[in-house]
Design goal:
single chain; alpha/beta; Rossmann fold; six-stranded mixed β-sheet; five-stranded parallel β-sheet; 19 helices; binds pyridoxal-5'-phosphate; binds ligand LJ64HWYM
Length: about 450
């Protein structure tokens, strides 16, 4: 299995190389050259298997020679051992044809743990073999950062540097990143919004001298390994609801487009997914794109679902690459226009293909709060605001198929929003007791590439 860049100019790589490389050297994202397909029998056989076994079967065809079967099984087992629910990604019924997939039982209470815990294991195994030392730099709107720190803290051959937008994440998210005391963890509060942090991260990857000097690696969903690990739970959910014998729809709270893109990969592997519904908050560039055919940035507006306060949706580039018939030159031109002019018109053919694969909707702040209140009153389930955006949009897109909404974070990560909607303040799980008592460690940095690079050099020179 080889991986190629969405911009067509970087060398193709193996799974392990693509995982350690992060962003391709032409600025593109790595994607598998071909997507392996399962037949109906192989998919039917996954129903009811333990999560780790489905993870092995789904991901194995993508990893090539990087790990033996035994090694890979062991790394998967270690990755999911710390999850608090035996099913890992349990389904709950919300209504007659509507299910919620709870993806927040990992160590940092967000769906990011599914991929980050595994990536942590894969990186460690790979670095132990090579003896290399790397600097992971990540941009976060709150959840990726805490999951990355949890996965990499204390490792001897890794520094992990996280950029988050100052005052634009919840207190729990901030404390998860600023209270770990390990000396290889460095948290930077950057002036600006998540898009600024992600743009700075990509600029660092495109500065080859800096990239090579610090041996830069990335664990945002830029990294194909992140997307791959998120493909698995589409299989566990759909097969438990009758796939491959019937279709299942999914509604996905969406920001950087990594999670829903993983669903698209599952569908291309042969899983009977009907519609993939993009659910956005007021930062609705993806919903507007599907409606109008025009992909155009507007400013990022802070919302009660801060992890989705994103307008430059990194993985949409992967979907465009597919929609433009895998034409790297066309994608490179669109990305230049996005950077230079703030947007571009999607071609007729490409927007048609995107509309065939994806539906979309958005939730206002009031709709999000009302959904949290109503679902709690009707079912007893407390939703985090991101999951509530998903449920609201799912309800407007119900068809014949069962609908699964992805619950992407635990309500206790966003206690203010949940309390405002329900009067209930969701407590943190006991394993996180003490989060409010520990001292915080964070460095304020301006949104300036040279300033960020200089702070990173300082932090890793220990
Ligand atoms: C809680 C939560 N929900 C949804 C999303 C959106 O996921 P994606 O960026 O993969 O679209 C994020 C951030 O990524 C998140 O942290
Ligand atoms: N919402 C994310 C944003 C980064 O997304 P990623 O999937 O590309 O890492 C966050 O919580 O940081």
């Amino acid at each position: 299995m080889r991986y190629v860049s969405t911009r067509g100019q970087a060398p193709s790589l193996s799974f392990e190389e693509a995982m350690l490389t992060g962003l391709a050297r032409d600025g593109g994202l790595y994607v598998p050259e071909t997507v392996p397909m399962f037949d109906r029998g192989q998919i039917a056989a996954m129903a009811g298997l333990p999560y780790g076994e489905v993870a092995f079967r789904v991901m194995r065809p993508f990893i090539g020679e990087a790990f033996t079967d035994d090694e890979f099984r062991e790394l998967i087992a270690k990755a999911y051992a710390g999850f608090a629910h035996p099913a890992r990604a349990p389904l709950k019924q919300l209504g007659p044809n509507h299910h919620l997939m709870e993806l927040f039982h990992g160590p940092t209470l967000a769906f990011k743990d599914f991929a980050m815990q595994l990536i942590g294991q894969l990186f460690q195994a790979s670095l132990e073999r090579s003896g290399e030392r790397i600097t992971i730099v990540g941009a976060t709107s709150g959840d990726t950062g805490s999951a990355a720190i949890e996965a990499f803290r204390g490792l001897a051959n890794v520094d992990v540097v996280i950029l988050y937008p100052h005052e634009r994440i919840s207190e729990v998210q901030r404390r998860q990143m600023t209270t770990p005391s390990e000396s290889n963890v460095h948290t930077l509060a950057v002036t600006g919004d998540f898009d600024d942090c992600q743009a700075a991260l990509k600029d660092m990857f495109n500065d080859f001298a800096f990239r090579d000097e610090v041996r830069l690696a990335g664990v945002n969903s830029i990294n194909w390994g992140r997307v791959l690990a998120q493909v698995v739970y589409y299989f566990t959910a759909a097969t438990s609801l009758g796939a491959p014998h019937r279709e299942v729809d999914f509604a996905v709270p969406t920001g950087n487009f990594g999670d829903i893109y993983a669903g698209d990969i599952a569908r291309r592997m042969g899983l009977s997914i009907g519609r993939l519904v993009i659910a956005t908050n007021r930062n609705d560039i993806l919903h507007r794109t599907l409606q109008s055919g025009e992909h155009r940035k507007s400013g990022v507006t802070p919302t009660i679902s801060p992890s989705m306060d994103i307008q430059v949706s990194s993985n949409f580039e992967r979907a465009l690459w597919d929609a433009y018939g895998r034409d790297g030159a066309a994608v490179a031109q669109l990305m230049d226009e996005l950077k230079r002019d703030g947007g571009f018109a999607v071609s007729q053919g490409a927007i048609g293909r995107l509309r065939d694969g994806f539906a979309s909707g958005r939730a206002s702040e009031d709709e999000t709060r009302e959904t949290i209140r109503r679902i709690h009153a009707e079912t007893g389930e407390l939703l985090c605001p991101h999951s509530a955006v998903g449920v609201h949009v799912a309800e407007g897109n119900m068809g014949e198929n069962p609908m699964v909404t992805l619950a992407t974070a635990h309500p206790a990560k966003f206690p203010d929003a949940v309390e405002a909607a329900t009067t209930i303040r969701p407590p943190l799980p006991t394993r996180m007791a003490g989060l409010y008592d520990r001292p915080e460690r964070v460095t304020r940095v301006d949104n300036d590439l040279a300033a960020l690079q200089s702070v990173i050099r300082e932090k890793i020179a220990r």
